[in-house]
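hey m, so remember when u said the tokens were messed up on ur end? i reran from scratch. heres the input so u can diff it against urs
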Amino acid sequence: MLLTNLGPYSSTAPNGGRQIAGSMTGSKISPRLRRWLEGISLWLAVLLFLFVHPVYAEASETGREGAGEFHFVDDAGQRLGSATLLNTDYNVTVSGLIADTRLRQSFRNTSQQWREGVFVFPLPENANVYGMTMTAGERVIVGEIHEKQEAKRQYAKAKEEGRKVARVDQQRPNLFTTRMANIPPGETITVELNYQQAVRYQSGEFELRLPTTLTPRYMPGQALDNEPAQWSGGWATPTTAVPDADQISPFTVRPDDVGPDSHRATIALEINAGLPVSRVSSPSHRVTSTWNGNTVDVAPESRAVLMDRDLIVRWAPARGMEPAAAVFQEQWQGEDYLLALVVPGVNGKQRLPRELVFVIDTSGSMAGESIRQARQALLRGLETLDADDRFNVIQFNSQTHSLFMEAVPASGNNLARARRYVKGLNADGGTEMASALDAALEMTGDGGEESRARVRQVVFITDGAVGNESALFGKIRDGLGSSRLFTVGIGSAPNMHFMREAARYGRGTYTAISDLSDVARPLDELFGKMEAPVLTDIAVSWPGQAAATEAFPDRIGDLFRGEPMVQVVRGLPAEGALDVSGRLPDGSQWQQSLNLEQAANGKGLHRHWAKQKIDSLMDSGLTGQIDDDARQHVIRLGLEHQLMTKYTSFLAQDKTPSRPSQEALETDSVPTLLPAGSQGTMLRYPQTATMSPLLIAIGLIGLMFSAAITLLKRRVYP
């Protein structure tokens, strides 16, 4: 940046570069002026050489950090001690369709100063955080839920008074921040979070995903002000499209930057699915499984895993034991909650002609293995096209480009051209997703009755590394029309919140691909669903529906082959029958009834209902600000059910000061690890002293020598 700015400055200075150069290159120059310029050039060269030595020493010292010695700097650019280290422990218990996780984050201060640690980290996109404790030495402090602004105020007060304090905020539904102040030198403080999530069930298989890192997100928009950016713990600064960019952009480093004892996680998973489990697998890690009756204990083969990719665990029920329907019940604070799962037994291969629009992300965050996964996913999608189908391919980075002007027939020539186009795609540039969505949702085929008879499907292949998710969701909801949007998550740490919610608003499904060896199975499932009949016009009838407070989701979308219908309701006892009906592609009716009196005991259903209710309230803010009534409702639900939301935070604070008032407090922003398979261009290091002053000095010296040589040349060859 500094070097870039020097050019125009020197060319426009009143008595600077451009006018002096004109004197030197002119045919006439007085001997007195020539001697004066030579003397000035010589003295400047001597002064710059004196300046170069300390600059070079500083650049050399700060530019060669050893492995495992990640450092931060203060506002003056001076290097502080080693960063606060992080270790994580996951303990997960699965009961039926709900997974309950105890997450422990330990922050160890390896420096000689009192520290504040700040760590931005991902959680599952459907996580309900409902508990927090802080452990400092032998003291265990239970956290309490507060309105976010009140939690910030109390945190700042405890931090200033030297008391140990921890706060956890939600930045996005799948992105959170832990802040912990007054960590003594050489000591470890632990924050424990409790959260639950719904287990995904699809095509006869359960799946649980534990994210451990995140892909740096693209921040569109213009800077909010013209003032110089102040470092605030993130690599990005707020923009008009992402006003909290500095809060969701943790530094991203390589594993060697943090040392062998940092950013490691231990994971233990207990599966009690309520039915016999036949097999357990993981596409992301090597795991061991131990059966104890109907309970299975699962853990990675290595004791601690590197936090550079999501952990994915899948398990399948024994043959013949796949659930066709299940219902769970819970009573909490005098109210009844029911959760129902129904898997429609829809068979057949009736196929309708389709119009498929494939959208592929070719931005810089997709460089490396991600773009290879994306190309392979798109090529596999092209193989599913029949002669009756039409298609197009759109790629986007900083700009959006379409292969064809409109959807074209899936002829041999068009498919061959598309394959060549896809194989030549590379990843670079920004992630301007909005224009790609506009192009995909607005693009139509040849019109007429033939076009209207086609099933229109959009396949969106991306890592979702964007910071303006809400605006994109609103665009999908408003521009979808008759299309269906299917998202394919790419990479070892995709933004699953974007994948799931974009598919929900797009009335489609989402699929995640973790590595190249796992591409075929999930894609075959996805494209198989897209070809298979769907169940539409779904109606759910609970007994005594008028007595129910609310059921979520309130509107069941289309179901594709192998997908379950899941709905949770508050205010109904487990009595009577639940009736579910829908329309098959041939126009015939499908119906199934479920006896609620056979409901099994469930755990955490009230939190699952509250999370669904909160999500429905937050949906109103997609195309603008959420209104105050909805905001207050979200706060009440968060406080009532002890859940973290966008407007509520957990806070745990010690009552007794521990840091002496004369001791300074330094702040460390603990980095996340570069997702496995990503290229080094996605690294985001903090601003440390760099070699730019040295390079500037060398450039100026070069200019002085050039001027001196030119003058001497003029003297010898007048």
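this time it looks ok to me. The domain at 73-316+641-673 is CATH 2.60.40 (Immunoglobulin-like). if urs says something different then somethings off w ur setup not the seq
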